[in-house]
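REQUEST ID: PR-0412
SUBMITTED BY: lab tech R.K.
PRIORITY: routine
TASK: structure prediction, single protein chain
INPUT:
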Amino acid sequence: MGQSRLLRYSGTALLVLSACATAEESKSAPTVTWEPVAENQIFPAALLSTVGVSRKPENSPVLCEPHSFARVRVKSSAPLTRVHVEVKVDGFSEVSSCDATLENADQQYLIAPTIRWDTHKLAFVDQPAPTTVVFNVKANGADLGEQTTHIQVRAVNDVPYKTTDPEGNVRDQPYLFAAFVNENSPVVDQLLHEALQWHAIPAFVGYHGKTSDSVRMQVFAVWNALQHRNVKYSNITTPSGFSDKVQSQSVRFVDQTVRVSEANCVDGSVLFASVLYKIGIHPVLVMKPGHMFLGYYLDAQSHETTQNLEFLETTMMGSGRPIRNVAFASPKVVQGTPAYSNFMDAVKRGNEQFQSEVSPKLQEKDPKYRLIGIRKARESGINPIPR
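STATUS: complete
OUTPUT:
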């Protein structure tokens, strides 16, 4: 009987202690509030081309990955709160997470994980697609629930060359056009093979020919091969979506340009640059408002300057008649053809544009005028978009 009472009293004591502990935990648990923050559009071209870019350490208010497009804004009523954030972009990424500690109470923090993108899927987004971003947050091990937001994934051909952030800061990123220069594309080797079949030159030797005329003749051989493919100018630049915060342009991949035999000014310039970079001639993309044309160095030493650059207006490619079955005997034989004359007209047009308009603006440091050196872009980590 006494033992029964003891057990009964002991059980009651345990229940009271348990209730006190639960109340104490509830009392000490911090109040954590959070909300998702995400850009409403993502550009696969920007994500894929900048993977190799080394980012300098920066004093960013964002914990984990400052450059992530998706983050959470979180605040805790207690210091040293441990927060775990998970983000998943439906159909385009795996679950991506990061852990951070909120050092101070009642201070707002931004936490952003490095998104584990499905890069193959991004590389083949040929038209814009809506998707959902799913966020989940835990604080000190307690699940704070899930929230979602909707975004648009833009077509991979869209290049966001100028953006404006919510604070009004403008960011120019014309270097992204270099990602469409793809010296590794199989179509480049095919074009080089076809160019030699027309006998404008005996071989592609890059700068080993040691003369400006040798370089120029190699550029002409590529020009001639593309004329045989009937590549024509087509002023199609409209991107797959709209944003008042992003200026973008649609750019074809080199295989798309060759397949459809159409090229706008950017398409033609990146196609030429792809072939020239493959054979060891250093190309540059010349940007001015509403237009792009090609430049290439006539020697191997000048690629860090604007010296010894020659230019080419690629939109004139479809305006002439290619040479046909002219066996190579000497440069003079080829240079006497209408096709070469047409090529030199395009060189003259390119040189005139640079000297009369672009060069003065570059000296004034006008941001609307840029030279995008492909070698420099590769050295900085801007790589071809893999397709």
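NOTES: The two ends are 83 Å apart (CA to CA).
REVIEWED BY: pending
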